[in-house]
Design brief:
- There is one protein chain.
- This protein has 361 residues and is of the alpha/beta class.
- It folds into 3 domains: 6-163, Rossmann fold (3-Layer(aba) Sandwich); 173-212, no CATH class; 213-360, Rossmann fold (3-Layer(aba) Sandwich).
- It contains 12 helices and 12 strands.
- It has a 5-stranded parallel sheet, with helices on both faces. Strands 9-8-10-11-12 form a 5-stranded parallel sheet, sandwiched between helices. A two-stranded antiparallel ribbon has the order 4-5.
- The protein is elongated, with a radius of gyration of 23 Å.
């Protein structure tokens, strides 16, 4: 990738200091930049402001949870660790989550005793387990091995996506006005009157400007060819419900540059659904490439769509998607899956709309 990735290590300190050091050493061996409370030093801002600022600057979060909840940020009502995680999750940064195995004995001083903090800790663990595929760890060495392997796979996929995109973008591309000129000339050659064409362009631009921020949500469907039949059923039902669907079979014309068309599809997408099956998880599948490009866009700071993994068959979930809660569609119930997708799409569409209104105030 063009810039070095920064990994933010998020956890309590006193009870996990040995585990943190093992993880930081693993990150250093991978030659990655890292940030955590050990390196903040003296700064002018308040502690929580400093922490959240570092989270925003990072690319990937490693979230480690033990049996302590940690200091609570009074204005937020949650711990520093949970606040850091929530900021990273809100910004759609990849979060690799690890929770200490409860069957492993530890020193009593490393176990939370405050009843309210115990309640908050259990609530947070439930949230993490709902949102992510959580890995359990036994000790610092065990944790470091898992983190190194997960980071290596994640970064390898992102770097591969960056290379694919760079190669595609290095190909000669036409400036926007040249492409518009070709479209206009083509329309005129087909007999469209110039005055009608100009009027149509004006109406289209005017409509786009008036509907900015109010257009129907768009979902990009990424799937293996072997799963095409059921995916088309999902696409059809979503379209019936007013969702704009991007489907490669309908959107990519023969002879088109595949990577560029995928980029265009992702540009317009608010959501990207990855249909997971034995066929789609193969290393050379289109789903793998589309997934890497979508995640690379998020990590590199570009506009990113909300990712929606959908499990069609029980199989190994790609490492890059293991930290995201998926929708179980192994029962092949299209109506139930579409209902759940609509629920998620409506929820996040409304939330994004509120965020945009807040930013404009």
């Amino acid at each position: 990738m063009n810039t070095a990735l920064t990994v933010f290590v998020c956890s309590t300190f006193s009870d996990l200091s040995a585990e943190r050091e093992s993880v930081l050493e693993a990150i250093r061996r991978l030659q990655l930049q890292h940030d955590s409370m050990e390196f903040f030093g003296a700064r002018s801002g308040q502690p929580i402001e400093t922490c959240l600022k570092e989270v925003r600057k990072s690319n990937i979060l490693v979230v480690i949870v033990g049996h302590r909840y940690g200091t609570i940020v009074s204005e937020l009502g949650i711990s520093f660790s949970e606040a850091e995680y929530e900021e990273g999750y809100r910004l759609k940064k990849p979060c690799l989550v690890y929770i200490r195995d409860e069957n492993i004995p530890i020193l009593p001083k490393h176990i939370e005793r405050d009843p309210e903090k115990m309640r908050l800790l259990e609530r947070w663990k439930i949230i993490l387990q709902k949102r992510h595929t959580v890995a359990m760890f036994r000790d610092g060495h065990d944790l470091a091995v898992q983190v190194a392997a997960d980071l290596s796979r994640t970064i390898s996929g992102l770097e591969e996506a960056a290379q694919v995109r760079a190669e595609a973008q290095s190909q000669a591309s036409k400036p926007i006005f040249d492409e518009l000129n070709e479209i206009i000339i083509g329309a005129i050659d087909q007999g469209v009157p110039e005055s009608s064409l100009l009027s149509a362009i004006r109406r289209t631009v005017s409509s786009m400007l008036s509907k900015e921020g109010q257009q129907a949500p768009t979902i990009f469907l990424s799937y293996a060819n072997a799963d095409q039949k059921i995916v088309r059923k999902v696409a059809s039902r979503l379209a019936d419900k007013g969702v704009k669907v991007w489907l490669d079979k309908d959107s990519i014309k023969p002879g088109s540059n595949w990577v560029k068309e995928i980029e265009r599809g992702l540009d317009s997408a608010d959501f990207v659904a990855f249909f997971i099956s034995p066929s789609s998880v193969q290393r050379k599948s289109w789903v793998q490439q589309e997934m890497k490009i979508a995640l690379h866009r998020q990590v590199s700071g570009e506009r990113g769509a909300f990712l929606l993994p959908i499990l069609l068959e029980h199989t190994d979930v790609p490492p890059l998607l293991r930290n995201i809660q998926w929708l179980d569609m192994t029962d092949k119930n299209v109506e139930k899956a579409v209902s759940k997708l609509l629920e998620v799409i409506n929820y996040y569409s409304k939330r994004n709309s509120l965020n945009k209104e807040s930013e404009n105030e």
